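Example record

The entry below shows one chain as it appears in the dataset: sequence first, then structure tokens.
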Amino acid sequence: MAILGIHDAHDAGAGIVMDDVVLGAVNEERFTRKKNDVGFPENSIRYLINSLKDEEIEKVAVAWYGGSALFARVWPELEVKRRKLWRKEIEKPSRLGMHARNLVFRLVQNQNPKWLWKWLGTNIGSYIIAKRLKRLGLEKKIEFVEHHLAHASSAYYASGFKEALVITLDGAGDGLSGTVSIGDNGELKRINQFKASASLGILYGAATIALDMRYSEDEGKLMSLAAYSYPSEVPELKEIAYYDEKSKQLVSRSGIKFEYLLAEYMKDHILWKYNREAFAYGVQRHVEEQVLKMVKQYIEETGIRNVAVAGGFFSNIITNMLINELPEVKDFFVFPQMGDGGLALGAAYYIDFKEHGKFNKKQIDNLYYGPEYTNSEIEEVLKKYAKEKKIKYEERKDIVKYTAERVAERNDIILWFQGKMEYGPRALGNRSVIALANDPENRNKLNIIIKRRPYYQPFASTILEEDAEELLSHYVRPNRFMTVGYSVKKEHWSDLVAASHIDGTTRPQILGNENKRFRELIKEIKKETGIGAIVNTSFNKHGVPIVMDPDYAIWTLLNTGSQYLAIGDFFVEKVNKG
């Protein structure tokens, strides 16, 4: 019997787990083509139910009962509006409006009394969700899983660690901004938690807004911009949130402020003293210091050296790199869908273990949990666009070798669509854009023809596992999911120049045997270049979701400067008119 997990606020999605094994997981944005989509994940649930074979859904695990999740269920239009505000699709409130919103924010942030918020969230939520599930033919018992427990469960049960120190950090959820737990043979025991009124996630997000970027989406830009600064400290950030080792708490001296009001506070009191790059550097350094203090302290106190983490904060690959390199850390795992988009799977993991008690001691090695399409289904779409004379295509049984030759010999940049769609925010070789890593111009080409992003954002890499130790410094273990940064050895900077940042770091997918077709592609490129690595970035326009289906793949080809697409066994070329 399987457990269906759902998350129905922002970054909505669903996942199915049975006996601690993931049967499928998707996010609603891929179906609706709305980045970080909000609301009940009807399309995700339909896909997962239809993909089940002999298994039956036993229970529905729902992540997050209070706060934003409760409001999203009762007044979904408010959550949609909040997301539009974050994406700069509507005007931000006036200062007076911000202070008015802050009154509500202060009331709900720490969610006191807890029992009342939980009672309201679970009772109202159960009624609303049950009605929506019934429309899909699902009348199953609903169990709620607290926000950070869902995050912790995703990290622990996917890690394969029998014993682990489990840390969660994000903006806020169910009154908390983070937790520390111990995982032991399948059981999770929380040993500390941090109030939402002091949040490193909100600090980082507000700093992102202060730099005129989008909250809950552009934090990676802040991290990238930080590398362009000279070393700089911003001591004023300690007033907003810092980790106090004596009390073992995140502490804020500036008081509770919702993200936009906090951003205005930063502009008025902090940012005006620094240039943008120095401010970004100071923010990045500050959060790194707080998290490293936390990790070191709990390793020392518990004696547990395997660390598993989740929560939106841990999309910060440089902080993750520093944790990974700590001598105190024996092994390190970041849940790949670390943000709220991973809550559904975390909730399913937790209820699955609670019901069945089975604990899988093997770490997940791939994220190919989404839809796939046959060559026949792909060709139906290709015929439609070819008839309109927008593309031309040919079927090639040697699609891997042919694509590799185009990349290695002609330096073509190619959209690559194969197999099951990846789960999470990273392209891992099935919905990717690929290019040579040793041509410095490829970064500019990718930005100009497809992504249209700021100059300071780097591209990621995929590296064959057998080549990783030669190319990367401080390499101790493979990372399959692009969740940790690594420094490139100086003698190989030119080999990875298009897939590295100005500070000499790269965010690699270390590829083993989990994706045979993608592995063969890189091995063929290596025959020509001598380098077992390529640029691998997500198959999408900047600011929209990664493509899911063949139709969206062709749309992306036609609506960017891309010229070539390898999809299934077909090689597609755009017809340039005029």
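Notes for this example: The longest helix spans residues 276-302. The chain has a mean pLDDT of 95.
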